[in-house]
Amino acid sequence: MIFKLKIRNIIFILTIIILVIMALGFWYKQRYSMEEVAKEQLHSKNSETNILIATQGSDFKRAIVTNIKNHFKLDTVFLNIIDVKDLPNIEINEYKAVVIIHTWEYGSPPVSVTNFISKNLDAKEKLIVLATSGKGTNKIEGIDALSGESIVENASDYSDEIIARLVKILESTKLKQSL
Fold first, then answer.
1. Which positions, given as ranges, span the membrane (predicted)?
2. Which CATH number goes with the domain that contains 50?
């Protein structure tokens, strides 16, 4: 009888612990998950130069995307801005460069990001990846990526680095086409 009571108490305590862990996970997801980004396009899709920007919604990421848009607003470069969850629908060969700005969640990047990068490793010279995390040091292995904390005051520094890498990729592409 006492043995059954102990087992019942242990099962009850384990159930409570599991429910608390699930509640904490739900709270964390609600508190820290990224907003979805509305699709946006700048300039004509028929442009000679197409750039994809896959991002997530946060003030820091929006500031970076705004800086990139402002840099290219007078050019004829087509910018296609999507949420990172839409990456599985993207054909990398339609773009000269791909910028991915994502948050490191639950110890890893979003599955859509890792799957997209894994699928397109043969075109990794087109990729510019910025991973944000609490520590600011996490990034996907095998990719020349940037990493940092989501501090809005630093957005222009990251924007400048991304734009410089974009310009380098676009110049390299033009050089290859002229040969």
1. 7-28
2. 3.40.50.300
pLDDT single digits (tens) 159-179: 999 999 999 999 887 766 665
> Backbone phi, then psi, for 139, in 5-degree steps?
-160, 160
Supply 17's token pair. 């612990």
**Of 24-28, 54-58, 69-73, where does mean pLDDT reach its minimum?**
24-28
pTM: 0.81
Q: Can you give the residue range of the structural domain that contains 69?
A: 40-178
Query: What tokens does 161 get?
Result: 């680095």
Q: What is the distance between the alpha carbons of residues 177 and 171, in angstroms, rounded to a whole number?
A: 10
> Which residue in this structure is represented by tokens 């000269």?
96
Given a contact cutoff of 8 angstroms between Cβ atoms, the answer to whether 140 and 117 are in contact is: yes
Residues 146 and 68 in one domain: yes
List the one residue out of 101, 36, 47, 35 whose CA is nearest residue 72. Answer: 47
